[in-house]
């Protein structure tokens, strides 16, 4: 592992994303990680550097693409297997966000889909991501689902750090993350893996 400052990490990722394509293609980037690894904060931090590189950016969170409560809580409100398997509305994410950014897509993206608090559709308006634009999607359990991305970043923590940084009321989620680690092995699937035992002191995980 190679320690890197948060600022240098953001600069490295922005440069790597920008270097993926210099034509009119739109790019889909996933920042994958448990809430304790703060994937949303990293995705947010990439917005301005990418715009300075001339890349329009659209932020989307997987937390806004959940299935209705009747599906999520079919086996109870704290079932880790349901969290892993059922919570994310993968079909809606594909249909409303990822597929429209294919080379032959129209670029019209739905930024939010489902409000978990009201358990209703958000009724958000579609927005168009211009050519050369970048979609930044954050959330857990994004890899191993055959979702189409041009770049994937996985934020990882040891089991001890994850337990320490996860609020006690959310400890029921820990088996889902352990299952994700062992069954999916997101660190092997991701284009770039970052260790964040302390999000203030990330480290790049280098592969042999």
Which ranges are low-confidence, i.e. pLDDT below 50, for 5 or more consecutive residues?
Answer: none
Instruction: Strand order, main sheet: write it out.
Output: 1-11-10-9-2-8-3
Average pLDDT, rounded to a whole number, is 96
Number of helices: 8
Share in β-strands:
15-25%
CATH superfamily: P-loop containing nucleotide triphosphate hydrolases
Characterize the overall form: globular
Q: Name the CATH architecture.
A: 3-Layer(aba) Sandwich
Order of helices and strands: EHEHEHHHEEEEEEHHHEE
Short synopsis of the structure:
With 208 residues, the chain is an alpha/beta fold. It is built from eight helices and eleven strands. A hairpin with a 4-residue loop joins β5 and β6.
What can you see in these coordinates?
It is built from eight helices and eleven strands. The chain has 208 residues and is an alpha/beta fold. It is 33% helix and 19% strand. The chain has a single domain, classed as Rossmann fold (3-Layer(aba) Sandwich). Strands 1-11-10-9-2-8-3 form a seven-stranded mixed β-sheet. α1 packs across α2 (39-52). The protein is globular, with a radius of gyration of 17 Å. The model has no long low-confidence stretch (mean pLDDT 96). It has helices at residues 6-18, 39-52, 69-72, 80-85, 90-98, 159-165, 174-184, 186-189, and strands at residues 2-3, 27-32, 57-61, 108-109, 114-115, 120-121, 127-128, 134-139, 151-156, 192-195, 203-205. This is Uridine kinase. Keywords: Kinase, Transferase. One of its GO terms (molecular function) is kinase activity. InterPro entries: P-loop_NTPase.
